[in-house]
Amino acid sequence: MKEKEFKPKIVSFLCNWCAYADPRDIEEIKAFASIFPIRVMCLGRVDPLYVIKAYILGADAVMLAGCRPEDCHYKYGNLIARRRYALLKEILESFDLDAHRIKLYWVSAPESTKFAKVVKEIVEEIKKKGPNPFKEEMFI
Amino acid sequence: MEALRIKKGIGDGIKEFLRFLLEKNKVDAIFALTKMQDGFSYSLIKDKKIIDDVNPFYPFMPANAGKLLSRLTLIEPLRKPILAILRPCELRGFVELIKREQGSSENIFFMSFTCPGVFSLKKYSLGYEKFFEEYKEKIKTGEIYENIRNTCKACEHFLPYTSDLTISLLGENIEEETILIIENEKGKKLTDGFEAERIEFKKSFEDMKEKREREKKRIMKETEEKGRGIDKFVRLFGRCISCHGCSKVCPICYCSLCDFDSKVHEIKPLSYEKEMEKRGGIRVPSGVLLYHLGRLLHVAISCVNCGMCTDICPVNIPISEIFLTVGFRVQKLFDYVPGKDYEEEIPLKTFELEEFTEITE
Predict the structure, then answer these.
(1) B18, B50 contact by CB (below 8 A)
(2) How far does B230 lie from chain A, in Å, by closest CA?
(3) Contact (CB<8Å) B333/A87
(4) How far is A27 from chain B (nearest CA, A)?
(5) How much is the CA Rg of chain B, to the nearest whole Å?
(6) Confidence bin at A23 (pLDDT 50/70/90)
(7) How many CB atoms lie within 10 A of CB B217?
(8) What is the pLDDT of residues B327-337, one digit of tens each?
(9) Mind listing the pLDDT tens digit for each residue in B86-123?
(10) pLDDT of residue A2
(11) Is residue B60 classed exposed, middle or buried when 0-12, 13-18 and 19+ CB atoms within 10 A define those classes?
(12) Which of the residues A10, A35, A45, A48 has the least number of beta carbons within 10 Å of its own beta carbon?
């Protein structure tokens, strides 16, 4: 029997006003990646705790997508998200955990092709890296 | 800096000053470590007779006083002035809590001291008095005593930042005299009318700071080695019994309804089945790593390294050492010293337009 191909699981937190603006995109993407979209009203209100939770429970990659710095719907939510993301990355790095599995992208609403493009990028990268080692960890 | 020299040993000298404050009605009560029954605990003292039992330098920290002051002032500020005597890290903890709107410094005079560190609470019941003489000797020379908490050994913030009055302990002849440094106008008002020799205080703490920095580097290196890579990382927290004691004693962990005490992160029966299939088995209850990483995310940026968490841990996980190591990294990232300044915003509440541009795409 042919071994099942590794299809990375990507949990994505998508800003309601940009990355999630065109849900048809997500349907297309689902063809080549198992993406779990979570719609949030603003990326700035996502507690990094939930990002970590996805990572520890075994998501191969966690993707955060929000508006570009200058066009946040709530003026500066994305800038706060960026600080939180920097903090999260630093904490993971201090334990030498793979912080590259968590990604922050700026995807504004008109760039519909960018969203598909970045997901493709992530899939390529994760395929090279292999599955998340936390997937088989009993002690979580 | 202006200072007062009281020609009495440190214990009697400070008690004399406290009695003066109560007699002259400069403050309504004193908040300090006091002998109570068999042990010491923080108390509010109004009666002059009980001042004899006060010993703010008692080398144990039964609770972080910052957290206690926040409890006192959470609902409304104090109506009458009090004098709070606390350690520099406790004061920093209180400042961080005020920034989070968990208390008010109104009507509180702060007195602190150059802190020689405290013993681990685990030594409390183990005939700790035998260490006291050695501890005293080390205070006089300003060296680090090897029996104190690890975080105290590595503490470079042993000088208080926001106190009104500071008692100089390190490197002083504490059996003969008490040096009381006046830091600001508020402190000056308290000392007005108190009869003592006024002197000019000059002292360099550079070499003490250097010693502690060296110790800090050593502890950080050790801890970093313990937690590098996923296997070691899991093993580091592997002993945790999920009692959540570390969050109960932490001054920065202030949420009265903690996310981790709720059922939000509990895995439901259906998911348990799925997870077991995937992993071969699963720890019950799950969420230990999430708890510790979550606490790091919420607290590390403001951690004042008081060391309560390691003290309280029943299975001896070096939590405060981990927070020291991770906290150092994240605080450096945002160039932030927790509790140094009332005005400085918590890094996660604010932002700059151009920063961390390399981490986003």
Answers:
(1) no
(2) 6
(3) yes
(4) 23
(5) 22
(6) low
(7) 12
(8) 999 999 999 99
(9) 999 999 999 999 999 999 999 999 999 999 999 888 87
(10) 53
(11) middle
(12) A45
Residue of B261, B267, B289 to mutate, testing the A interface (most A Cβ within 10 Å of its Cβ):
B289
Examine the pLDDT at B171 and tell me if it is beyond 90: no
A40 CA: distance to closest CA in chain B (Å): 18
**CA gap A40, A46 in Å, rounded:** 8
Q: A-chain residues within 8 Å CB-CB of B293?
A: 49, 52, 56, 91
The length of chain A is 140
Chain A contact for B124 (CB, 8 A cutoff)? no
How far is B232 from B220, CA to CA, in rounded Å? 16
Tokens describing residue A22: 């065109």
Residues 6+ apart with CB under 8 A from B84: B31, B32, B65, B69, B108, B109, B110, B111
Q: Per residue in B220-249, pLDDT tens?
A: 999 999 989 899 999 999 899 989 999 999
Query: Could B355 and A139 be called an inter-chain contact, meaning their C-beta atoms sit closer than 8 Å?
Result: no
pTM of the model as a whole = 0.93
With cut-offs at 50, 70 and 90, classify the pLDDT of residue A135.
Answer: confident
Residue B190 to residue B333: CA distance in whole angstroms? 39
Residue type, B173: N
**Collapsing DSSP states into helix, strand and coil, what is residue A87?**
helix
Hey, how many other C-beta atoms are within 10 angstroms of the C-beta on B255? 12
B290 close contact with A: CB closer than 8 A: yes
Point out which residues pair with A105 in neighbouring strands.
A65
Report the alpha-carbon distance of residue B199 to residue A101 in Å, rounded.
60
What gap in Å lies between CA B7 and CA B72, rounded to an integer? 34
Mean pLDDT of B179-188: 91
Query: Hey, are the CB atoms on B233 and A97 less than 8 Å from each other?
Result: yes
Q: B21 in the Ramachandran plot: left (φ > 0), alpha (ψ -120 to 50) or beta?
A: alpha
Give chain A's mean pLDDT.
Answer: 88
Residue carrying the six token digits 């090897």: B146
Confirm or reject contact between B285 and chain A (CB < 8 A): no
Distance (Å, whole) CA A9 – CA A55: 10
